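ugh ok fine here u go
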Amino acid sequence: MNSRGPSSMDEDDVWDKIRMQQLEAEADRFREEKLLGRCWGIWVQGCRWIMVRASLRRNCTIVKVKG
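structure:
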């Protein structure tokens, strides 16, 4: 059996729970940051695709008018 009393074990348990909550909060922030970064990249790619498509469409319209 442990030489420390029950109050010391309870205190250790409390500190373990606090550490676990802090680690979980840090993991949540990390995941949120990663998701935000990924979503931003996808959004930027989508905007670029729209601009390219619009540019191609304008160019095709000009060619048809001239042709």
